[in-house]
Amino acid sequence: MSRASQGPANRGRTTRSRPVNRSAGGREADRIKATRAGWASPTSAVTSFWRSGPLPAPVAGVAAGLWAALTGLVITVVLTLLVWIFAAGESASDTAMRVGSDIWLVAHGTPFAVGAGVWSLLPWGWLVFPAVTLWAAGRWVAHRAAIAHPRTLLVASASLAGTYAVIGLLAALYGTMAGASAMPVRAVLHTGAVAFVVTAAAIVWRAKLAPDLLAKLWGLARPAVAAVAVLTAGAAVLLVAALIAGHSAVGAALQAIDPGLVGGIALFIGWLGYLPTSLMWALSYATGAGVEVAGVTVTPGSPFAERIDLIGLNLLPTTPQVWWLIGVIVPAAAGVVLSRLAGPASSIRGWLVARAAAVAFVLIAVDLWWAVSVGQLGEGRLGAVGPPPIVIAILTGAVVVGVLLEYLATWALRWWRNRHVIDLTQVSETEDSEDVSA
Predict the structure, then answer these.
(1) Where are the alpha helices (DSSP H) in 25-56?
(2) Helix 150-174 / helix 57-86 crossing angle, nearest 10 deg
(3) Distances in whole angstroms, Cα of residue 437 to Cα of each of 110, 423, 425, 428
(4) Which of 91, 87, 85, 121 is closest to 106 using CA atoms?
(5) Which of 245, 247, 376, 387 has the most CB atoms around it within 10 Å of its CB?
(6) What share of the chain in percent tops pLDDT 90?
């Protein structure tokens, strides 16, 4: 019996008894784990015609890593070939396959060397697609390997991530083209890191490891999640307003490109990939931090000197528009929601701890959001684009201000409800009775 398949009740204990029919029922350790809360339930799932127990964690991890990587890679290449066929591409089909391989790497955040510059401002929204296959692979590993211990979790996740990273390296070497190539080392690091994080989360969720700890973390993070949701919704409103205000520039750019039906769909999918970046740009611009382009920070009070004919960047105004600063309301509203969901506390210390923990989660989320919203689009004027780092301090500070405003509003409302109302009628009647008695 492998140590990975043993539960705490069986570790260090040996037995000579074996089931009479191993194909009909699971092993004793599997039956014990199936009845314990927080363990995987492998008895009915892992039984097959060739194996009656759970797979070793490394074997399951390698198999799942191959499946997740090849599935995502093949789907991306096939879709790229379909676009190439309908668009009547003049290049060879081998070039389209290389482009599909590069797109799969881009979905993992792998930067590319383009000419003398670097393309590192990537469509991070595409990360959803490999995350789906990796999540399914992680759930399968937890089920087939009967993950029930953190050490086994690390072994399985590392095996899957290592296999996935090897496929990422091969894809980077295969997708190299003239003038554009993925950075092999970064390809290994990015694909491996994404695979490890998503797979570990899927295994923890499927195997129900440390449910009490997860519940406690969710209790602390729930106000922060709501605050980030408010930030995202507010940024979406600002982005829609920017698209409406700059619809003429966007229409002119699309007319110049003339992508057609298939190209238009591909362009829309590409824009969806840049949606997180666009939302952060809109939020940074509307809160006064601005957006840095070609070494110049564009703010509502300090517009760009000339328009850049590039979708997204052509929305930056060339005239002062100070009214955009009303967007500072968005992070303040997020702070109010955060404080409301944090709930009341029996002491000042409890009140501070709950809100400080939630604000810390918001700070981490804003840091990551900013990190995926800055980078390079090439060389020259596009060598460094994105919001300046000060936007992190502005957003976090506005969230804290929202928390304080919610506290003051709650205190004022409580004071108003508990105020003492003097009835002047009763006072006059008392004075009259005193005069009569006198």
Answers:
(1) 28-34
(2) 30
(3) 94, 22, 19, 14
(4) 121
(5) 387
(6) 39
Element (H, E) at 385: strand 385-386
Q: Which residue has tokens 């129900």? A: 208
Domains identified in the chain, total number:
2
Query: What is the pairing mode between strands 112-114 and 296-298?
Result: unpaired
Whether residue 131 is found in the same domain as residue 171 = yes
Strands 291-293 and 385-386: antiparallel
Q: Which domain holds residue 327?
A: 217-416
> What CA–CA distance (Å, rounded) separates 179 from 307?
27
* CA neighbours closer than 13 Å in the CB half-sphere of residue 147: 31
Q: pLDDT, tens digit, for every residue of 260-288? A: 777 778 888 888 899 999 999 999 999 98
Please determine, for residue 188, whether its predicted confidence score (pLDDT) is greater than 60: yes
The Cα–Cα gap between 355 and 319 comes to: 40
- The burial of 237, by beta-carbon neighbours within 10 Å (0-12 exposed, 13-18 middle, 19 or more buried), is given as middle
Same domain, 229 and 204: no
Determine, yes or no, domain membership for 300.
yes
Lowest mean pLDDT segment, chosen from 125-134, 203-212, 401-410: 203-212
Domain co-membership, 148 together with 257 = no
Classify residue 185 as exposed, middle or buried by CB count within 10 Å of its CB (0-12, 13-18, 19+).
exposed
Can you list the alpha helix ranges (DSSP code H) found in 92-183?
A: 93-106, 128-144, 150-174
Does any domain span residue 242?
A: yes
Q: What is the pLDDT of residues 165-183, one digit of tens each?
A: 999 999 999 988 877 888 9
